[in-house]
Amino acid sequence: MNNEAQLTWKTSLLIAITVAMAGAVVYAPTLVNELTYDDFTVVGENPRLGALVHPGAYVSSDYFRLSREATYRPMVTASYALDYSIWGRRPVGYHLSNTLWHGAACAAFFAVCLSLGAPRGVCGLAALLYAFHPVHSEAACAVGFREDLLCALFYFAALALWPAGREPGANAPGANDWLRALGALLCFVAAGLSKEMALTFPALALAKELRFWRHGGSGAADGAFWAGRQRKAAIVQHSFAWALAIGLLVLSVTFTSSENSAANVAPPFFLRAPAFFLIAARYLRLLVVPWPLSVEYFIMMMGWLFWMEVAGAFCALATLGAAAWRWRRRFPAGFEAFVAFLLMLGPVSNVAPLFNPMAERYLTIPSAAFCWVVANALAALRPRRRWAAACVLMSLYAALTVARERQWRTAEQLWRDAIKTTPTSSRAWMNLGYALDCQGNQEEAAKDYRMALTLNPKDPKVCNNVALAMFRQGRLDEAIALFRRTLQMQPRYVRAMVNLALALAQKGDMAEAKRTCEAAMRLEPDDAEIRIRYGAMLEGEGRAGDAKAQYETALRLDPLNAKAHSSLSALLADEGRLDEAVIHARAAARLNPRDAAAQVNLGAVLAETGNLPEAQAHLERAVDLAPGAADARFNLAIVLEKQGKRAEAAAQYERALKDANAKGNKSLAASIEARWKALKIP
Predict the structure, then answer these.
(1) Are the CB atoms for 226 and 209 separated by under 8 Å?
(2) Rounded mean pLDDT of 643-653?
(3) Which of 51, 87, 210, 451 maximizes the CB count within 10 A of its CB?
C-alpha cells in the first residue's frame, strides 16, 4: 500500500469512527430510559431469558417459548442473552447495546456509500444524515426492536463487501473478490437471522453491479458488461446469494411460532396489496417531514376513502418515479434511491400479513436510500451552501431525535403520546393502563383497561389486563369471570392461567388454583415465574419441602431470578440455615436493588444473624423505596428496638400500624400493635 492509498484508508477509517460515534452519542440520552413497548415481553418480563445463554436453545422447538419471538431471529435473541448475562434486567445495559448497534450500523452505511464510488464527503454526509434521522428512534429507543438495528448493520456490511465494480480490463476476479463475496454472504446470513427485511439483499447486490456497468466501472476492455471468468464468477456469487435468500425465506415461513396469528386477523390480499402504495407514500412523507412520530399508525383498509387514498398515493409514486427516470442521467442518485427504497420495503409490503402494516422501525434499512439521495442533492450545491444546509438539516434531525427520545423515556409517556395521535387504538389504551398499573396507580389503570376493552372486546390480552386490574382491587368474582372469558378466547394463554390461579388462591379455592397452575406448568415447564407462584401455594399449605423444590427448580431455569432467590432465602431462614439464607437474600437485593420486598427480606435475615447495623441500612432502604410498606417499617422497628433505640422504634411501630390498617391487613396490624405495647413507651 503506497502512502497516498494509506492516507486515503486512514481518512475513511477516521470518518467511519466519527459517524459511529455520532450515531451512538445522539442516542446516549436513552441510557436513562426505562423499558417500554415490547421490551417487557422479550426482556423485562421474560422469565426464560436466562435459558437462552445455552446454545442448544437456538436449535430447539422451544426457541419461541424461550425467546417470545414470533419468527426465528437467533442473532437478536443471542444479543439479549449476552446483555442479560452482564446486566441482568437493568434497562441501562440494553439501551447501551442499542446505541452501540446503531452507531455500528451508521458506520456500515458509510462503507456502503464508499463502495459505490462516491466521494468521501458525500458518503460521510449521507451516513451522518442516517445517524441523526428521527425515524430511527423507534428501533434505537426500544430494546424489543433491536432486530432492525442488527439487520441494518449486517445488511449494510454485506452490501459494502459485495465485489462489484472491478477494475476495467480485468478478465478474472482476484482472490480478494472471492473473500469479499464470502464475507458478504456471511453478513447476509447474519442479517437474515436478525430480521426478514434482509431478504432483499440479492436484489440490491445485483443493483450495485448494474450501477457499475452503467458507469463503465466494470467489465473487460472490450466494453462488455462481463467477460470470461468475470461473468462466471458473478453468476456463481449471485447464485449463492439467491439460494441463501430462498433458504432464509423457507426457514422464516416454516420455523415460526404457532402463536403468530396475524393471518387470522389481517384483511384479505386484494386489500393488503394496493395498501402498499399508500403505506410507501406515507413512509416517504415521514422521511421528508419526520414529525410528529408515533408508535401507532392505522391504515383503514375499507371504504371508498381508502381507495381514493390508494389512487392518490399510486399517482404520487408514479409521478416521482417518472421524474427520477427522466432525470436519471443528470441526477442518477435519484433513480437509484427510488428503486432501492421500493425494493428494500418489499418484505414489509404486507403481502404476507403483518400485525403492524406500518411502523417506523420498518424504515431502518430503506431510509438509507433517502439519506443517499439527500446527500447527493446537497453535494450539487456550492461548498458553503452545501455545508450550511447540511448543518441546519442535521441539527434539526438531532433536535427532533432527542425530543422523540424523551417521549420514549417511560412507558406512560410513550402511550400517552400515542393516544394523542390515535385515540381509538385499544392497544395504546391497554399499554397505558399497564404502565400505570406497574406504578401502583390501579384506579387510573382500570379506567384505561376498560376503555381498551370497549374499543376491542375480543382481544384476550386486553381482557386479561382488565381482569388483573379487578383482581388487584379485590374484586375477585369479577376478575375470575373475566380470566375465564380470556381463556375461552385463547385456551393456551399461560399468563391468564397463572393470574386465574392467583385469584382462585386468594378466594380460598386452593384445589382449583393448584390445578390451574399445574396446567400452566405443563404448557410452560421452563417458566421460572410459574414455579415460584406454585411454590408459594405449596408453602401456604405448609408443604415447605415441596415449595423449596419448586424455588430451586426456578433458580436452575433462571439463575438471575430475584424472586426465586428471595423466596428460597425465606424458607432457608425458617429452617435455621441462616448463612445460605443470607447468600440468596443478598443475590435478590443485588439483582433487583429497587425491590423493597427484597430489601426487607435481606434486612430480616441479617437481623436474625445478629448483623443489626447492616439490617437497619437495608430496611431503611426498603422504607425509602416503599414508604407505605407496613412490613418494612415493622421489621425496621424491631431492629431499632434490638439496638436499644426505643423512641425511634416506637415511631416506626406507630407508622407501620397506620399503614397496615390503611391496607386492611388485620393480622399484621395485630402483630405490630402487640409489639408496640410490649415496648411500653407512652
Answers:
(1) no
(2) 84
(3) 51
Q: Is 349 exposed, middle or buried (0-12, 13-18, 19+ CB in 10 A)?
A: middle
Distance of CA 596 to the CA centre of its chain: 27
Contact between 437 and 469 under an 8 Å Cβ cutoff? The reply is: yes
CA neighbor of 400 nearest in space, from 282, 286, 281: 286
Q: What is the model's pLDDT at position 123? A: 93
The pLDDT, as a whole number, for residue 215 is 56
Task: pLDDT band for 201, please (50, 70, 90 cuts).
Answer: very high
* 8 A C-beta contact, residue 520 and residue 502: no
Helix (H, G, I), strand (E, B) or coil at 256: strand
Q: How far apart are CA 108 and CA 297, in angstroms?
A: 29
168 residue type, one letter: P
- Report the chain's mean pLDDT, rounded to a whole number: 84
**Which has the closest alpha carbon to 274: 308, 242, 244?**
308
Please compute Rg for the chain using Cα positions.
Answer: 29
**DSSP assignment letter at 166:** P
Where helices occur in 193-268 by DSSP H, the ranges are 201-215, 229-254, 262-265
Q: For residue 457, how many C-alpha atoms fall within 13 Å in the half-sphere facing its CB?
A: 2
First-to-last C-alpha distance (Å) of the chain: 89
Cis amide prior to 292 (ω within 30 degrees): yes
State pLDDT tens for residues 258-293.
554 454 456 777 778 888 899 999 999 999 999 888
Would you say the pTM of this structure is higher than 0.90? no
Cell of 85: 448475562
- Crossing angle for the helix pair 332-345 and 303-326, to the nearest 10 degrees: 140
Name the percent of the chain in helix, strand, coil, to the closest 5: 75, 0, 25
Of the two residues 596 and 396, the one the predictor is more confident about is: 396
Ranges of H-type helices in 26-115? 39, 63-67, 74-87, 91-115
> In angstroms, rounded to a whole number, what is the distance separating the alpha carbons of residues 217 and 168?
6
Q: State the pLDDT at residue 356.
A: 79
Structure-model confidence comparison of residues 491 and 352, the more confident one: 491
- Digit-coded pLDDT (tens) for 366-380: 999 999 999 999 988
> How far apart, in whole angstroms, are the C-alpha atoms of residue 517 and residue 192?
38
* Residue 104 Ramachandran class (φ > 0 left, ψ -120 to 50 alpha, else beta): alpha
Measure Cα distances from 489 to 264, 433, 458, 463 in Å. Answer: 13, 21, 8, 9
- Is residue 110 classed exposed, middle or buried when 0-12, 13-18 and 19+ CB atoms within 10 A define those classes? buried
Question: Which strand (E) or helix (H) includes residue 2?
Answer: none
User: Taking a C-beta distance cutoff of 8 angstroms, is the pair 198, 153 a contact?
Assistant: no
- 45: Cβ contacts below 8 Å, ≥ 6 apart: none
- Rounded to whole angstroms, the Cα distance separating 404 from 419 reads 15
Q: E strand or H helix at 376, and its extent?
A: helix 367-379
Cα–Cα distance measured from residue 679 to residue 675, given in angstroms and rounded to the nearest whole number: 6
Number of residues in the chain: 682
